[in-house]
Specification:
Strand content: under 5%
Number of strands: 0
Mean pLDDT: 92
Low-confidence stretches: none
Number of helices: 3
Radius of gyration: 13 Å
Number of domains: 1
Order of helices and strands: HHH
């Protein structure tokens, strides 16, 4: 049995971005824009989806601080 290389998880739809972001921000150590942007850089190639992800993260983090 031949096993191919393991590919990095890629976020390529808004619904996946929403789910990933909710899971990411569940952990207190991930609740910063630095962490969010690092994950976006690693997992999102599409500029529109990246902007969507970053915008939603800012909104979610702002709500969590009130």
């Amino acid at each position: 049995m031949t096993v191919g290389p393991i590919e990095t998880f890629v976020i390529d739809h808004e619904s996946i971005a929403d789910e990933y972001l909710r899971d990411l921000l569940k952990k207190p150590e991930n609740r910063s824009m630095d962490v969010v942007e690092r994950h976006a850089d690693l997992r999102i190639k599409d500029a529109r989806i990246r902007a969507y992800f970053i915008t939603n993260a800012k909104e979610m983090l702002a709500k969590s601080q009130t």
